[in-house]
Automatic annotation (TrEMBL), chain A:
Protein name: GTP-binding protein
Major place of residence: cytoplasm
Family of the protein in this entry: Belongs to the GTR/RAG GTP-binding protein family.
Protein's cellular compartments: Cytoplasm
InterPro entries hit by this protein: Gtr1_RagA, P-loop_NTPase, RagA/B
Annotated stretches, region: Disordered: 187-219
Keyword GTP-binding attached: yes
Gene3D superfamilies: 3.30.450.190, P-loop containing nucleotide triphosphate hydrolases
Source domain of life: Eukaryota
GO molecular function: GTP binding; GTPase activity
GO cellular component: fungal-type vacuole membrane; Gtr1-Gtr2 GTPase complex; nucleus
Self-association and partners: Component of the GSE complex.
Function: GTPase involved in activation of the TORC1 signaling pathway, which promotes growth and represses autophagy in nutrient-rich conditions.
Biological source species: Sordaria brevicollis
Automatic annotation (TrEMBL), chain B:
Region (Disordered): 1-24
Lineage top rank: taxon: Eukaryota
Protein name: GTP-binding protein
Subunit structure: Component of the GSE complex.
Amino acid sequence: MADYDQPSGMGGHPSTAASAAAQQAAQAQLKKVKKQKVLLMGKSGSGKSSMRSIIFSNYLARDTRRLGATIDIDLSHVKFLGNLTLNLWDCGGQEAFMENYLSQQRAHVFSNVGVLIYVFDIESRDVDRDLATYVNIISALVQYSREAKVFVLIHKMDLIQPMTREDVFDRRVALVRRKTAEAVAIVRKQKPESQPSGPGGPAAGSVPQGSLPSPSDLSTPIPDLEVEMQLFATSIWDQSLYKAWASIIHDLVPNLSVIETQLASLGVAIDADEILLFERTSFLVVSKWTSPEGESNPYGDRFERMSNILKAWKHTCSKFTGTPRNAEQFSDFEYKMGANFSMFVTKFTTNTYILVCMPPGEARFNSAKLNVAAARPWFRFLDGPSMIAPTAGMGSSQMLSGLVGAAGGGGEA
Amino acid sequence: MASAFRRGSDAPLDPSTETRPQCVSRRTSRAMLNLHRVYEQNRQRVQQNLKDGAKVPEPIAVPHAKGKPRLLLMGQRRSGKSSISSVVFHKLPPNETLFLESTARIQKDSLNSFMEFQVWDFPGQIDVFDNPAFPFDMDAIFGEIGALIWVIDAQDDYLEAVARLNATILHLQRSYQHINIEVFIHKVDGLSDDYKLDIQRDITIRIQDELSDQGVENAPVNFHLTSIYNHSIFEAFSKVIQKLIPRLGQLEAMLTNLCRTCRFEKAYLFDVNTKIYIATDSTPEDMASYEICSDYVDVIIDFTEVYGSWQRSPEWRKRLEGPPWEQKLEDQVACEWAESGMVLADAQRPIMLREVDRFLALVAIMKEGSYEKMPQINMNVDVVVKGLTEFFEITKSKMTPTAVPGGVTAVGGGNGVMNGNGVVGDGH
């Protein structure tokens, strides 16, 4: 999404060397997309490192008890889908560290941020204090990285009685939203003073800011100073964690529109009810496609459930084979439920697994498996930065023509 | 179709779905002749044994074997009895057992599966044998054939528990000798392996000494190390329940045969609801195989719940049965029951699953390179499944008052195995 929208936006610029500039900008954009700075913040003990370990290092929920407190910032580079690297800044949440981030390391920590993930512990005793810290963090973020997306995770929801969970969550959402608005308002007031002195970053979000005329800075930025935020109720003991992280990842994946179009063409070609594309190590859903019939599935949480199930299964396999947790565990999983449905999960490209749920029938199943194998080349761009994605239209039309023969052959077999 | 993988499939038995599967058409092939030979040999051996007066396994003579087998859970209070029954029979996540209330009265559950069981959970504070205020009807409790499961908290002082267990065993030995006594040395998660064995040895010695002092030898007491936080509790229950299955040997023989002919490493017959395995082949058991097979069943249950538990629209069906297929959906599938296969990344030891009936599923770990022969294996499994279905039909009817003589059971069971042999012979 990011790749393809940006150049057209630049096209609006009244520039003479339009095409060259656009290309350069696109390339710069590509580089920027490839490395995303993700801040993981929240009070000490709220569960930041635990969730990171579960999602990216294949920990079991109960194994996270072993984790100690994070000291200062724990930097990790998570390779995701070959052409996206997440620079994950797991920021230790003890107050001394927090103050440090907000004062001495302020520019270092908060500039160039793609995504801020802020974790609230729902069981926390001192909510006001948590919120005060949160307001400070948000104002620092808005000051240095205005386009950063914010995801707020209300964590440890398993400790709340199931009956009251929704209520508690809604109330907390309202509170956090109000505080976010407050934080933004503070920055708005400060704006005139902070802008000249603040190291707005020559390399930082310079593209959109540079295009703004600096004298009118005082008046123009105020209306569009909005924080794009999403809130999730999470717990490491169920699939809710996968839901939150899948949406965090969703916006960061490059070429998402291409993936989606191609997945849809594949789905139609093989007559599937649902297709899910998972990242290999985290089993987060990268993209999905559902047929009109599949939409009537009453389980709205099925995507994160599948992530959770497959992740647990992977863990079982690693125990059985004695191979490391992060290694690849299974290559193929078939399941035919009589005249009800069939499904298979199989290794797709180097970095992905694909799950296909489809109507029953042996011939249909076998041809779908062949077709999925045949469609692999069209998703190969997911594997490396060097691969250039085919444009959406061309890719899907060619892919379709490549597939039809196979489907016919399978049908007759 | 009623399936074991559909949750809440507790519908009453529908006689129409219980039709007896027809045996494969009989033709005299070489394999068939071979079978006949094996069968004859077996029969002669049995007769030989009979003549020699050797002990033929026969159902234990129990006066009232008409009801359902009963599992009695007993032990000190807070030893984990209710947690065990909730985790095993009600699928409660282990970490939620912390919130269970203490049991105040006898909790009676019945477990509907391939066999019907009753599970009675006794409150720890009640001593069944020494309760002058409200004497229990001993026959009502211990009259049925079954097992007494005595739970001992290994992380607590267990001397009193052992003393009470001894008293119980002595009581039972006097009048209800048919009851198996299974001691669960519980809550052993987090204890080191050495320490676990030390505890087990200590408890075993204490019980045996006490019993032999009282002149009781060879009491049917078995020990299991268990915890609800791993698979050990399921494995222990599997062992307990296997002892209650009539003609378990036949079942095991069928599975062993299947393993040999299909080159399986290990095969389990699972009760899907509880993940207890009711039979396995004769190769040595190891925990790792059981764990992965049991988790496999879990994954299949989850998949089925998400994608198989809702009704598709008639239009969907119409489209799928229309051109170019022109066949009813039921005819487009090869097998009306759930079947699944899985290949590990290193391409070794694939795993397969096949649903047997409403309650049971066959799960097997295969050997390297056998996944390519899946169609053949599926045929073999099909035949064994038919044999199993026959087996259960015969043993089920034996439980009812109009009992079929034991000899027929053996032949019926043998038949299933033989069928299994026959197709396998053709295949190889």
